[in-house]
Design goal:
Length: 75
């Protein structure tokens, strides 16, 4: 899995974070809305959970890419 994530260009990951991760831009990004629901323990609907994970996935990919990059530079 690491090799596939490392092959994804940084620009693609950053564009995914800016578009899918923060969509829709108004009135409030879904990721912020769903995080608020999660913190209030109101994130119960399967559709809301899927929506939260979908909008969170580019940021998870970005985090994994950063971790793998650091590990490769240290070794």
């Amino acid at each position: 899995m690491r090799q596939y994530i490392c092959k994804i260009p940084w620009s693609v990951v950053l564009i995914a974070c800016a578009t899918l991760g923060l969509a829709p831009y108004s009135p409030e990004p879904h990721l912020f809305e769903k995080t608020t629901l999660l913190l209030r323990a109101e994130l119960r609907s399967p559709l809301d959970i899927f929506d939260f994970l979908m909008h969170l996935s580019p940021f998870i990919l970005l985090l994994l890419k950063i971790i793998f990059k650091r590990k490769n530079n240290v070794l």
